[in-house]
Amino acid sequence: xxxxxxLASAQxxxxxxxxxxxxxxxGGIVYYANYLKFSERAxxxxxxxxxxxxxxxxxxxxxxxxxxxxxxxxxxARFNDALSVTVEPQRIRKASLECVQKIFNQQGExxxxxxxxxxxxxxxxxxxxxxxxxxLEVIRRGS
Length: 143
Prior knowledge:
By secondary structure, the chain is an alpha+beta fold. The protein has helices at residues 32-49, 54-59, 133-141, and strands at residues 13-18, 62-73, 82-92, 96-104, 110-122, 127-128. The protein has one domain (13-141): Thiol Ester Dehydrase, Chain A (Roll). Strands 1, 2, 3, 4, 5 and 6 form a 6-stranded antiparallel β-sheet that branches. A hairpin with a 3-residue loop joins strand 3 (82-92) and strand 4 (96-104).
């Protein structure tokens, strides 16, 4: 049995992203920082798919902020590529969430792996707070 804070058999969420001209550098490939933007969008859509309405929590001064990210760029994406960005939650703690995100091209080639640690904070004080029960339950359940 997995430890209480590990998310056993978590479902992998996938979100489509199209590479726009503005996402590329002078060489015509995706600028490295934009992989972080693609990952952020996928995490937002993952939360939305779970029924977590971030607007409600933001009104209550509760939000997630990225505390740490490790990015492994393996192959380039290019203008007009259709990408798939995954979110796979790995571990949830009292005030933080860890996930692995992968970005693939249409051919299924792995382009990027991001390991992300996000902290739940009070947006007024920017201090860590416990992840609210309703969010915790939905993430643990995975649906």
